[in-house]
Write a structure and sequence with these properties.
heterodimer, A: 114 residues, mainly beta, 7-stranded mixed β-sheet, B: 6-stranded mixed β-sheet, 5-stranded antiparallel β-sheet, 11 strands
C-alpha cells in the first residue's frame, strides 16, 4: 500500500494564482484532513471530511476550498494565493472520525507564494 | 484556540543523555496522542494514552498520562541521534455536531540529539 500520497512535493506560486494540492489514500479511510505547518505554530487544521460528499471547516479555512467526490481523493484548492499561505501542507487520513484513531500523514507539500 | 502547551520548545542534548518533554492543558482531556515528525516527513503516531495515571513504554520512550488527565510527559532514556525530530502531542476534541472528532496539535518540542 502506498498510504497517503501528496503531490506536488514542492510548488512556487505568484500572488493571485490558483492551484490544487492533490491528496490520495489507498486504505479506504473514511476520514481525511488537511493541515498546514508553519514555524512556531505547529499543525493547524484547515478542512476535513468524514466521508465522500461531506466536508467541514477546521481552524484556518479562509482562502482554501475542498471537495470529496470519492473516498480516495481529497484535493485542497487555493483560490487566489497570498504570501500568508506560504507553508508546508500535510494531508492525513484515518479509518473513521472517532476518538483515538491513528492519523496517517502524507509527506507534505512545501508551498511558496511570492 | 490552542488547547495544548508543549515545553520546552527546543532541546539539544548529547547522545546518551536522558530527557523529558511535557504537554499540558488547562482542560481535562479524555485521551492524548504523541507523534514524532522527522525532517521532510509527516508526523507518525507513537502512542495513545487514555487512562489517568497510565504509563506506556515503547523501547526507550516512556509516556505518562497525568492522574488529573490535564498533562502528559514523554521521557527518553539514553537518547540517540535517531531520536532527533519534532515531538507533537495531540488531542481529539468533539466538533459542534457531537458526532465527530478533530485532532488538534500542540506546537511541538524540537529535539536534537548530537553524536
Amino acid at each position: 500500500n502506498a498510504g497517503v500520497t501528496q503531490t506536488p512535493k514542492f510548488q512556487v506560486l505568484k500572488t493571485g494564482q490558483s492551484m490544487t494540492l492533490q491528496c490520495a489514500q489507498d486504505m479506504n479511510h473514511e476520514y481525511m484532513s488537511w493541515y498546514r505547518q508553519d514555524p512556531g505554530m505547529g499543525l493547524r487544521l484547515i478542512h476535513y471530511s468524514v466521508g465522500a460528499g461531506i466536508t467541514d471547516q477546521g481552524e484556518v479555512p479562509n482562502g482554501y476550498n475542498v471537495s470529496r467526490s470519492t473516498t480516495e481523493d481529497f484535493p485542497l484548492r487555493l483560490l487566489s494565493a497570498a504570501p500568508s499561505q506560504t507553508s508546508v501542507y500535510f494531508c492525513a487520513s484515518s479509518p473513521s472520525p472517532t476518538r483515538n484513531e491513528k492519523l496517517f500523514f502524507g509527506s507534505g507539500t512545501q508551498l511558496s507564494v511570492l | 484556540t490552542q488547547l495544548l502547551e508543549q515545553s520546552p520548545q527546543f532541546l539539544s542534548i548529547q547522545e546518551g543523555e536522558n530527557l523529558t518533554v511535557y504537554c499540558n492543558s488547562s482542560s481535562v482531556f479524555s485521551s492524548l496522542q504523541w507523534y514524532r515528525q522527522e525532517p521532510g516527513e509527516g508526523p507518525v503516531l507513537l502512542v495513545t494514552v487514555v487512562t489517568g495515571g497510565e504509563v506506556k513504554k515503547l523501547k526507550r520512550l516512556t509516556f505518562q498520562f497525568g492522574d488529573a488527565r490535564k498533562d502528559s510527559s514523554l521521557h527518553i532514556t539514553a537518547a540517540q541521534p535517531g531520536d532527533t525530530g519534532l515531538y507533537l502531542c495531540a488531542l481529539y476534541w468533539e466538533n459542534s455536531g457531537g458526532s465527530n472528532y478533530k485532532l488538534t496539535f500542540g506546537k511541538g518540542t524540537l529535539l536534537t540529539v548530537n553524536p
